[in-house]
UniProtKB/TrEMBL annotation:
The gene is trpS. This is Tryptophan--tRNA ligase. Belongs to the class-I aminoacyl-tRNA synthetase family. The lineage of its organism: Bacteria, Pseudomonadati, Campylobacterota, Epsilonproteobacteria, Campylobacterales. Homodimer. It is found in: Cytoplasm.
Amino acid sequence: MRILSGIQPSGTIHIGNYFGMVKKMIESQNDGELFAFIASYHALTSVKSKEDLEKNSYEAAINFLALGMDPEKSTFWIQHDVKEVLELYWLLSNHTSMGLLERAHSYKDKTSRGISANHGLFSYPVLMAADILLFDSNIVPVGKDQIQHVEMTRDIATSFNHAYNEEVFVLPVAKVDENVATVSGTDGAKMSKSYNNTIDMFTSSKQRKKQVMSIVTDSKELNESKEWENCNIYAISKLFMNEDELANLRQRYATPGEGYGHFKLTLLEKIEEYFKPYEEKREYYLNHKQEVREILEFGASKARKIAQNKMEKIRDIIGLI
Ligand code: TYM
């Protein structure tokens, strides 16, 4: 069984990415053949600075390695090192209706927030379909916001298979963990780099404190009892605490004299404790960038072999002789 997923290097990885997808992906190395890549081409839809793209790409690679990506067991690369994906993107474009792309939530959401649309943003799902189909992926672990893109991939693959009357592509299935399908940000909306409401996985203590302390709550006073049910601090704490710790926290909500500031500090401690074991490995890779480059190149060479093979078959099927 082949499992594939990618992440855009469009900023530091936040805990929404981590619980929504990265954690599941790293764990899936024990369940099947994992293909994981840094979606550098996709990031071009939002990152327009050379320095930022390079920095974010290293950052993403280093974070994955620190969190347990095993480059021997899995195939781990950066998207632009396997250029076959761009060829497939064009071939698939000719089997993708305008209507399908016009219905994409992510595109509609971005344009409705005033991001001016270009063709890259519009055709983003076709490139994502190429990523998935090029490697005959069966399972795609993602957060909720990407489910529709995987469904579109199935539509595109079906249309292609139908046109050539052959099972050229495997139909992939999105794998979503319902408990963390959408991790909320500090303001209660979906955690997202573009909403500026993230809590980052690896960042300075000062910055992390600033992010946690900015979690929005109601304005109940210290001596009032509080409700945990709809509280953003509680929602995020659920990711980091076990049932006993949560029961204790719920009790504190009911205790006058305990305030949101206290709950935030408890959460902050839990977050630091959670990511601490990975810091040392992260530090190592930060100081060995050449090794990171070599690991990605090794992954790309494995991915390229599969991609080249697949593209030869596809070209033959469609008559590109
Ligand atoms: P990206 O980089 O936006 O996000 C990476 C993963 O994190 C998940 N995610 C979340 N999950 C839960 N709660 C949140 N608040 C949250 N925010 C982000 C996303 O659902 C995603 O799984 N298009 C993809 C990258 C990509 C890809 C692919 C993925 C390119 N090609 C092929 C799978 C297969 C993206 O933008 O992810």
